[in-house]
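Notes on consecutive records. When two proteins share a document, each keeps its own sequence and its own token line. Never mix them. Below: protein one.
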Amino acid sequence: MNDDLELVWDRYSHRLKIFIRSRVWDEPEAEDILQEVFVRVHRALCCQPDWNKPESWFYQIARNLIIDHYRRQRETVEIPEGLPGEPDLPEDDPEALLALSLKDLIDELPEAYRQALHLTEYQGISQKQLAEHLGISLSGAKSRVQRARGRLRDMLLSCCHFEFDRRGRIVDYYEHCCCCHPLEEQTK
């Protein structure tokens, strides 16, 4: 059973880390949460009713630990109104797999752009709310978000080659560097 657990963990740990990092921006805290997921899985092996589908169980543990993390931080950090469910990603969807790598690229953006994308894309606030939050004009907020998206696009194009279908959707992509980590290769 320990060998099986190690294989399953190797398969899902990268996805779980991405899931956790998309909700917890502090890298050491996210690592601690990921390790705690593994500890809790290991402790509860005897009680897990459906070992054939461990992924949902892993994500539920991760969600609970993220909620606990924000509860401990209540004085300094607002708890998100709702944590999204586990990603429902088909294995053969290159756009979805690439989207999971965006967080690392966004972290490389300058603070102003990183903050603008985080607030509008991940926390779902409008550009008008972004302008109010940052104390800048609406046109300034729109410009900041567009520049951030443009820089992110340029970063993606410099590290990956994309193939598109006739409708402009990504069919496949290939890395030129190591900044994108497709989950397909991680789970094989």
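Protein two starts on the next line and is unrelated to protein one.
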Amino acid sequence: MRYDLQKQLNQKQALAQLEHLISKGARIELTEKRKQRTYKQNRYLHVILTSWGSHLGYDLDETKHMVKTHLLPSLFQYKKRGLTFYRSTASLNTKEATTMIDKIRKTAQDETGFYIPEPHETELLQQMENDSERYFM
């Protein structure tokens, strides 16, 4: 069950459920559900990844792989039983997605001379999105 603990009813329901499980001696897992990135943030991220990737000669999947393994491994990398794995960009919350976007914008500008518009530069972003769609269609 998921409960929004900012709502009084959900708080009472969560406590009642916890008390019930304690009385049963149940084994449970309690985790915090973080806010996933917004649709707007997700769209922006895909536009900049696609556009910067095409500038570098990569497709979207290759660009994501490059970001995960070379640009931001600390954000994506985890180890399990001696093997290294990379989590999906879909698992990023809003704060992590912002970190990724900021790093991509800075690296693109500083290291490859590629300007990525800020989210509020809607006209430039629309042009970038149109260019990237034309490149990959």
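For the record: The beta strands are 77-80, 83-86.
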